[in-house]
Structures are given as C-alpha cells and as structure tokens.
Amino acid sequence: MGSIRYIVTTFTTFLLVPIVVSAQATSQDLTPEQRARMQMERETRVAAELISRRPIEALNSIWIEELTWMEVRDLLQTGTNTAIISTGGIEQNGPYVATGKHNYVLEGTCEGIALKLGNALCAPIMKLVPEGDIDEPSGHMRYSGTISLRQETFEAVLEDVASSLEAHGFEHIVFIGDSGGNQRGMENVARTLNERWHKAHAHFIPEYYQYGGSEFLESELGIVQTENDGIHDSFGITSLMMVIDPTVVRYTQRVDAGLAKINGVPIAPKEETIEVGKKLMAFRVNLTVDKIHESIAKTKP
Questions:
Q1: pLDDT digit string, tens, across residues 3-27
Q2: Judgement on whether residues 15 and 122 belong to the same structural domain of the protein
C-alpha cells in the first residue's frame, strides 16, 4: 500500500510540474482543463490547511496582528466572538506630545477592554483618520506631521476592516474612537453594517470618548486643572500616555526645561503621574466595557 501511495504521489507531482512551469511562462498556454486542475489542487491544499492542527503552543495576546491565523481561528472556535476596532490619529498635539497621541492611549485602553471582556481581540489600531482638508489644509492639517484621510476613505476602510472580521466569524464588532473627529464615521459605518448583516452586529460606543476624564480626576483623585495652557493637551491624556511610554510626552526634556506641567498640574515625579494614568485608564476601561455589554444585550432576542 505504501508503494502505491508513493507511485501516485510521484505521478501527481510529475503531472503537475509541466502545468506549473507553463503557468509561469503564460497562463494563456494552459488549457481550460489544466487551469481547472490547478485550481482544484489549490483548493484542496487550502481546505486541508484550514483544518490542520496548530503545531505549537499559542501566544497569549489580544492583538490580532500579533497572532497567527491558526491562533485566531482557534480562539474563534473556543468562544472569542468580539473584535474591537479602535481609531486614533496622527495630528498636532502641542509642543510636547507626539503626533500619535491617540494611538498610544489606545495601546493601553483597547488591551484593557479586551482583557476585561474576556472574549475579545483588538484589531490593529486605525492610526490614520480624518484630520482636516488636505488640498487647502484646514484643522490639524495646518501643522507639520499631521496625516489626514478623506471622510469617505475613512469610512470605507472601517467598513472593509469590519467586514473582514465578520467574514471570519466574529459576531460582535465594536467601534471605539479616541478622537472627536472619528465619531461620526464610526457611527455611520456601524449603522450601515447593521442594516446589511443578519447574524453579526456592529456596536458604536461613544462613551469611550465621552468618558468624563476631567470629572473623574477631580471628584475621585482631587486633581484640578487650574489653568489652560491653550494647547491641544491635558493632564488626563498626558497621564494615560505616560502609562505606555513617558518619552512620547517628552518627559525628560520638559523636566530639563522646567516645563513639566500641563494646565497647572505637574507631571513630575513621573511615577505619580503614571499611577494616576493607570487609575484613569481603569475607569475608562470599566465604563466602556459596561457600555459594550449593554449594547450586546440589546441584540439578544
């Protein structure tokens, strides 16, 4: 029996070689029968691969881009049914804070939300969003380094990303945005997808953005911003960013220049500000998770 299998395998391989070589030369050289045979071979290989077992231990991560396709597949099969699409931005944020401000915040909040949900993964952060007109620069586009998308481009990308996740079996697609300019597009896309989908559901969570950070800092931690520096920054956002990486708010440079404060609140020592950022992040994560649960509950019969 082993000999027969070897002969058949060898014969099949031998038979396919001229087809592959011819296809590399020009697909027009193939007959319809040869094209059909090649397509059948490809589909057979893919079908076998899709049900093959994962050969190694899985990575413990909630970021889809860090996982292998097998790890995502296996998580889907064991109850992970929610995917979070987060939108940030590349924009001017004053003289101290990196243009990727919103994206750094989302590194912490999206991960925290997914972990607390327990059955969710984070799609790659959508770092490019509408930031103003491009041809005649407006809004943030008047400042160097800002990158903007047209509103229709932003919504088309959101729709494609969400549809990709739905096609693989995610039942709940959650949209959260760290910037005000992202909210309308996410709401529009969620509405469009819910009109189209029959089994999956899109959830736009505006409370992630409207979470009342300043109120929390004041009422729970006694931190009041007594001044307004007039720049696109705040103590709350700075503290959230410092949880991820103090360099993105230029902590050392600001200390050296005697400018280690924002809106009347000092950011030094950094350890204290990072602790504030962790508490603020936990508050934001918990609020968002509650609203996601509420939104999902409304989809159940």
A1: 333 323 333 333 333 444 444 545 6
A2: no
Q: What is the C-alpha separation between 88 and 127, in angstroms, rounded? A: 5
Give the residue numbers spanning the domain of 285: 64-297
Q: Indicate whether 57 belongs to any domain.
A: no
- Residue 81 and residue 178 in one domain: yes
Residues 176, 211 within the same domain: yes
Q: Look up residue 146 and give its two tokens.
A: 């800002």
Q: Rounded to the nearest 5°, which phi and psi values hold at 130? A: -65, 130
For residue 168, count other CB atoms closer than 10 A to its CB: 12
Which pLDDT belongs to residue 6? Answer: 31
Across 143-217, where does the E strand assignment appear? 172-177, 201-204
- One domain, residues 167 and 23: no
The DSSP line for 225-278 is ------SS--HHHHHHHHHH-GGGGTHHHHHHTT--EETTEE--SHHHHHHHHH
Distance of CA 287 to the CA centre of its chain: 19
**CATH number, position 113:** 3.40.50.10310
Same domain, 251 and 277: yes
Residues 116 and 283 sit within 8 Å (Cβ to Cβ): no
Q: What are the tens digits of pLDDT across the range 45-89? A: 988 888 889 999 999 999 999 999 999 999 999 999 999 999 999
| Model confidence, pTM | 0.87
